């Protein structure tokens, strides 16, 4: 979220693509595949759901993107958001506890009411409801371009939008039905994934549609929202001082370890421990380590999570993406089998690439 009242003259207009992706698998390398897709599609922010990552963490996934995610031990029903690097420092808080269905809406109301009205709010959510086509009586919170008929859960979405003065963004842009359907499985074609924003910020949004053909999600499809945000200018990473650290890991080398022992023994005057003065002893050890082992550069390593990524893996994922697009256009058994086989090849290829990179260390 960005607090507009805090924006200064050091701000600039920024076109942001906000995507909502559906079910995201935990296959090895999936995070890097997400980053590759975001870079190719020029996406800045990506919401993911039904992830299978465990725990509550943040990690780099490569190409200048960072993933913040929250998952449970069952490896199901997780969620997260992927941000381009320039947005990472604007993150205030990430996390959400699992709520019982009957408490969800009341607790969501409480969260919304706790946010100052002048603060921008954009939500990317699988509400599992159909707001329906047409907007008679609900013109203030939605457009005409939903899918099929409204159901009870969809009415709850509309009621929430009215209570919180928000708008259901998907429904304001006229698209072919194929670019409005967010969930497709077998014969089922529905719209259950939505992007909502405050009504006052609706003018900042220039487009919203479903992207067809990406292979990072299965049944759910990506919803793309293009909007203009004011983003505070942050210091470049090169301008930020990072503490230099002693290279203690070099003690694993016998020659370094022996030199360190000798220098430390000399510094301590031949004693193992200075009498009644541990702090002085500790400082002598640290100073000896700095002199013998040296200090790190202070520069942060980029893409440390995906250093194994190579062109072969990238090409195989590109082939999988094209096969997915081919299957979406012509759902024959032959095309399905081709896509499944390429999925398996990508998994094997990623696993081999990681193993090869580890072996070369």
Automatic annotation (TrEMBL):
Residues 32-202 form the Endonuclease/exonuclease/phosphatase domain. It comes from the Eukaryota. It comes from Hemibagrus guttatus. This is Endonuclease/exonuclease/phosphatase domain-containing protein. Pfam families: Exo_endo_phos (PF03372). Signal peptide: none annotated. InterPro entries: Endo/exonu/phosph_ase_sf, Endo/exonuclease/phosphatase, Swc5/CFDP1/2, WH-like_DNA-bd_sf. GO terms for molecular function: catalytic activity.
